[in-house]
């Protein structure tokens, strides 16, 4: 697949299926996929493109696309920094010319934003860039050597000097030395099992050498569509943890979220209750495998997965133990409020504007209350963003985009969720681990709450890992922009705490 307005790269398809009049395919590299029906009158495939949980109408017609303009002399990667209120925010402008013209996109690594479509133009030495999705514009002048563009950016009512320098070569893929690579001292097998109607989950089961039966762990991913390795910015934390546990004699099942990678289903219509159904299906399937000890199967959930695991374990006596990694212990509205306050300085917002931003999101979430549909919820939220977000560069386009992110049934379900009732019901051994530099699920807010909710549990261990962020990496600040820059995937201290605890429970504990 080629999306000429976004990239010159051709993206490989996966799981292409033609069943009757229905065509489906996935594009794993961009977390997307298409499902459509053949329309013989229009001679086209009519359906939806779904990407990162958001569905958009897409009609595939025969023939080629018109060519776009060519902007000469700017191909390459251009990097600079915007001096925001409290931090310098890195930006990277990618420019590529291909058979369909010149394509540009913008990354903001410190805000975990990548691939924003940009319109670029050049008139002699004058260069302009427009990023409609975030209401940003840039105007600069290219120097005589063609390697520096000096100018300024504007977003909302804020203007900042921005000098973009051409990188000598495209940035090489960052090393991820902890990612496991064969040969392994254990077996890794592709598996699949049924969940809800229309949902078949695909995953990997790793088994230690020997006949078993082995204790086992089921891994449950965090928010957003995730593959079985919980891949983010090139890191594969679930693969690293699974490798460590399996080497310790513990079997591990990890699976792709429904509707993502090799799992079927519709992620965009799923909520936390649906993900709990999927985790229960994983438990049902794993407990029937001959080399697994069904009495010693535990759940490990990261972030939102730390919400799902207690939901499953609280109502299922077959769960032997639970590991909560960066898991919420207070209502999700409180978690998100603390998260925004902690991340704001690293995203360039001073205390005053951080408070305004928080108020805007609070008002948007309150406006969605009682909405009869996702569409109504998103319309209400977009109206708030547009009215209160002009200082942050909000326009109709990015207000609608922001509203689409928080106006889904999944997100609204999260907002209404309080993890404490299910935590209170857990009587099995529980390990709760959080990093001291986690700015998304703060240790100081959530570990005490978990401990309080589980005060009656006789086998609860809570650990705050010093210097560790939300992804369990050893971090400097804990800001989201560091995730990609850190080569370490999982801190050794985290692997030891989790591995020692699980191996000990798996070896000695049974119901």
Task: Give a verbal description of the structure.
This protein is an alpha+beta fold and 511 residues long. The chain folds into four domains: 14-60, no CATH class; 76-166, Beta Barrel (Porin); 187-331 and 417-508, Alpha/Beta hydrolase fold, catalytic domain (Rossmann fold); 332-414. 26% of the residues lie in helices and 32% in strands. The chain contains eleven helices and 21 strands. The chain has helices at 237-247, 272-287, 305-313, 332-343, 351-368, 374-388, 396-406, 409-415, 420-424, 443-453, 492-508, and strands at residues 14-19, 22-27, 32-39, 44-51, 54-60, 76-83, 88-98, 101-108, 113-123, 126-131, 136-142, 148-155, 158-166, 187-194, 200-207, 214-220, 251-255, 292-302, 319-325, 430-435, 460-465. The strands form three sheets. An eight-stranded antiparallel β-barrel has the order 6-7-8-9-10-11-12-13. An eight-stranded mixed sheet has the order 14-15-17-16-18-19-20-21, with helices on both faces. It has a five-stranded antiparallel sheet with strand order 1-2-3-4-5, with no helix packed on it. Helix 2 (272-287) crosses helix 3 and helix 6 packs across helix 7. The longest helix is centred in the C-terminal third of the chain and has 18 residues, at 351-368. The protein is globular. It starts with 13 loop residues before the first strand and ends with a helix.
């Amino acid at each position: 697949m080629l999306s000429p307005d976004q990239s010159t790269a051709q993206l490989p398809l996966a799981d292409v299926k033609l069943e009757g009049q229905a065509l489906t395919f996935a594009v794993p590299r961009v977390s997307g996929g298409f499902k459509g029906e053949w329309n013989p009158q229009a001679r086209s495939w009519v359906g939806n493109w779904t990407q990162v949980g958001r569905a958009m109408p897409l009609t595939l017609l025969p023939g080629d696309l018109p060519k776009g303009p060519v902007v000469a002399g700017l191909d390459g990667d251009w990097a600079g920094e915007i001096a925001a209120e409290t931090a310098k925010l890195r930006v990277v402008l990618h420019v590529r010319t291909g058979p369909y013209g010149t394509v540009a996109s913008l990354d903001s690594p410190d805000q975990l934003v990548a691939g924003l479509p940009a319109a670029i133009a050049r008139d002699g030495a004058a260069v302009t860039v427009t990023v409609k999705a975030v209401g940003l514009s840039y105007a600069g002048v290219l120097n005589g050597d063609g390697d520096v563009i000096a100018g300024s950016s504007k977003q909302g009512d804020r203007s900042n000097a921005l000098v973009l320098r051409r990188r000598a070569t495209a940035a090489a893929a960052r090393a991820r030395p902890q990612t496991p690579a064969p040969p392994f001292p254990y077996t890794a097998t592709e598996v699949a099992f049924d969940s809800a109607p229309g949902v078949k989950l695909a995953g990997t089961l790793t088994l230690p050498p020997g006949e078993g039966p082995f204790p086992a762990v089921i891994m449950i991913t965090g928010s957003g569509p995730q593959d079985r390795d919980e891949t983010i910015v090139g890191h594969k934390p679930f693969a690293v943890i699974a490798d460590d546990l399996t080497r310790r004699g513990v079997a591990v099942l990890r699976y792709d979220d429904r509707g993502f990678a090799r799992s079927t289903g519709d992620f965009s219509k799923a909520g936390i209750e649906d993900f709990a159904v999927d985790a229960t299906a994983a438990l049902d399937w794993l407990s029937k495998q001959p080399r697994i000890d069904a009495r010693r199967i535990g759940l490990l959930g990261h972030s939102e997965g730390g919400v799902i695991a207690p939901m499953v374990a609280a109502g299922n006596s077959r769960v032997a133990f639970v590991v909560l990694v960066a898991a919420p212990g207070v209502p999700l509205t409180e978690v998100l409020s603390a998260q925004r306050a902690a991340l704001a300085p690293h995203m360039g917002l001073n205390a005053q504007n951080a408070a305004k931003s928080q108020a805007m999101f609070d008002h948007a979430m309150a406006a969605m209350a009682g909405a009869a549909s996702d569409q109504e919820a998103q319309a209400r939220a977009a109206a708030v963003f547009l009215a209160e977000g002009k200082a942050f560069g909000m326009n109709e386009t990015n207000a609608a985009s922001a509203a689409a992110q928080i106006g889904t049934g999944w997100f609204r379900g999260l907002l209404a969720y309080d993890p404490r009732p299910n935590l209170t019901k857990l009587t099995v051994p529980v390990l709760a681990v959080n990093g001291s530099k986690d700015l998304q699920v703060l240790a100081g807010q959530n570990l005490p709450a978990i401990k309080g909710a589980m005060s009656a549990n006789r086998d609860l261990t809570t650990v705050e890992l010093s210097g560790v962020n939300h992804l369990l990496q050893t971090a400097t600040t804990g800001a989201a922009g560091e995730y990609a820059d850190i080569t370490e995937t999982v801190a050794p201290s985290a692997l030891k705490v989790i591995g020692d605890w699980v191996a000990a429970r798996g070896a000695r504990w049974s119901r």
